[in-house]
Amino acid sequence: MYPLLETINSPAQLRLLPRSELKTLADELRAYLLHSVSQTGGHLSSNLGTVELTVALHYVFNTPEDRLVWDVGHQTYPHKILTGRRERMNTLRQLGGLSGFPRRDESEYDTFGTAHSSTSISAALGMALAAKQKGEDRHAVAIIGDGAMSAGMAFEAMNNAGVYDCRMLVVLNDNDMSISPPVGALNRYLAQLMSGQFYASAKSVGKQVLKVAPPLFELAKRLETHAKGMVVPATLFENFGFNYIGPIDGHDLDSLIPTLENIKHLMAKGEGPQFLHVVTKKGQGYKLAEADPVAYHGPGKFDPAMGLQKSAAPAKQTFTQVFGHWLCDMAEKDSRLVGITPAMREGSGMVEFHQRFPERYYDVGIAEQHAVTFAAGMACEGLKPVVAIYSTFLQRAYDQLIHDVAIQNLPVVFALDRAGLVGADGATHAGAYDIAYLRCIPNMSVACPADENECRMLLSSAYEQNHPVAVRYPRGAGAGVATQAHLDALPFGKGEVRRQGQGVAILAFGTLLYPALQAAEKLNATVVNMRWAKPLDVELLLKAAAGHEALVTLEEGAIMGGAGSAVAQALADAGVQKPLLHLGLRDEFTEHGDPAKLLAEQGLDAAGIEQSITRRFGALATLVKGSKPALKSVA
Predict the structure, then answer these.
(1) Is 566:537 a contact under the CB 8 Å cutoff?
(2) How many CA atoms lie within 13 A of 175 on its CB side?
(3) What's the confidence (pLDDT) of residue 8?
(4) pLDDT value at 631 more than 60
């Protein structure tokens, strides 16, 4: 099915092809990509859009000697296929298989590990200047999407790059689509320029002259439209010190390759940093993905002939959906609520909120730092901001979290999606550190719901507070607990005993409560649903310590500095000495793979919890194992 593609196992072989065969190669690459992703799941729309661009870059540049840095990296499947990893694409995003993003330890062609946006220009600039300092003859190319260009870091890098003479190229892959629809002033820059007084006056005179000849008037309007696209981006990027070229069709190899060759020649002549603007289409070549690139952004397995199908059986409600429903219900009740997202409307479950409350919905683009300070400004004026953000992305706004929100003790709610392990996206997207990096901030509180209904109620608890609170919840569905319709809140900073046993007390933070309950049945251990990592329910903790021989803390987060550390500190402050076992994510980056398998590898499934407790407190666990369990639930 792929006679030409199957002969290409490295870019060096690609560069031996006559240019006339590259269109055929691109067609086969796109077909192979569609088939492969349909079998494994993964990012599809973005990769279909970069097929020709990938072929052209590897054809013109001497990779891996020349460095390609892919921003975000979720559009690098064609790159992986052309760089010797075609036969391993069936392992994509699976445990022990290929990563869904570039990784330096996976291939020499992956020159920089990327999975968060807007880092490519900085990295490529560093590589270009390092090559210059070492006297090495190589080029550095950053490929960045228009969505990623909304982040301040990209502009910081361009501002810095413009003062250096180095062999660097920035390729703006403009598909007018990040994950959520793009927002911001960048694409409105033209409108502001064209609304200036001089332009308006000239345009008015021109209209009066051309009205006597309608065909000429229409032609002038069309020329004006095309001229805007050519002149204004050049003005913007050349002010940063780049030589702007474009825009050109990113699917036309006959345009791409000669243009890249010309740019390479300019770089060799020492003409300074170059900027190429290419226009592509997400989902290119697969009509269903072209029509709905958001749905096909990161699909699971599917039949390409049929497209995505709705499951016959109703799926369990996800935590993201719980948040989305709560947000709408609370907005209905309180007109002060505003919802903020950094370009993750769909991923954070805010589509319905956007539809129902458009005047209170703010998508700030891929700009996490701005999102947090923007929320702080709104809170200063008496509004109640809810920032819907992935745990891994909040890391990018840590200074703003401390300086702009916490120091001023502003009532901002942070809905932290994707807390804990995230499965196929791997270490770059895991929300492993939020408990550790949040609990050390004064004025900040952290809630850890155990299931869907607790998530809804703890969001209400967080909203009631007059200080910043984060509610962390995992990707996907939980235990399947039905959510209540009301907006009742749970008591602030208070946990509950979910199972009364003896000997060992397991203090569970978050959704690992449920495997803890399973393990406790075999060990006849007490299980405490702590609910809050900060403030700790110290009264409940000390009661558990007084009534048991040993304590176990359990969290789907980093052990280092996490909730278990908070428990140990609280016990030490109270002068209580008690054998204590911490279970959580080890001090290592967790690979991509099936979430259940990853939790089992970390010893955080029911069997692993039981084994860890038995191994540490063997005699005690054996002593109470045969005791009759007494089940008790205290709300």
Answers:
(1) no
(2) 27
(3) 96
(4) no
Please indicate whether residue 237 or residue 326 has the higher confidence score (pLDDT). 326
DSSP state of 629: P
**168 phi, psi to nearest 5 deg:** -135, 140
Spacing of C-alpha 335 from chain mean position: 29
Rounded to whole angstroms, how far apart are CA atoms 603 and 433?
Answer: 18
In this predicted model, what pLDDT tens digit does every residue of 193-205 receive, in sequence order?
332 333 334 444 4
What is the C-alpha to C-alpha distance for residues 276 and 269, in angstroms, rounded to an integer? Answer: 17
Of 612, 601, 425, which is closest to residue 516 (Cα–Cα)?
612
Give the residues across from 70 on adjacent strands: 143
d(CA 156, CA 291): 34
pLDDT attached to residue 310: 80
* Pairwise CA distance, residues 162 & 155, whole Å: 11
Query: Quick one: tokens of 80?
Result: 């992986």
Are 361 and 401 in a shared domain? yes
Name residues whose C-beta falls within 8 Å of residue 147's C-beta, 6 or more positions apart in sequence: 117, 177, 178, 179, 182, 343, 365, 366
Instruction: Report the greatest alpha carbon distance in the chain.
Output: 100
In 10 A of CB 74, how many CB atoms? 25
Q: Is residue 614 part of a domain?
A: yes
φ/ψ of 577, rounded to 5, equals: -110, 120
The domain that holds 435 is classified in CATH as 3.40.50.970
Name 225's Cβ contacts closer than 8 Å, sequence gap at least 6: none
Closest-CA residue to 9 (of 68, 77, 86): 86
Catalytic residue annotation: 282, 368, 396
Domain-located, residue 200: no
3-state helix, strand, coil in the chain (%, to 5): 45, 15, 40
Which alpha helices (DSSP H) does 274-318 contain, by range?
Answer: 287-291
546 and 432 together in one domain: no
Count the Cβ atoms, other than its own, within 10 Å of residue 21: 11
Amino acid in position 399: D
Q: 496-530, pLDDT tens digit by residue? A: 999 999 999 999 999 999 999 999 999 999 999 99
Number of domains in the chain: 3
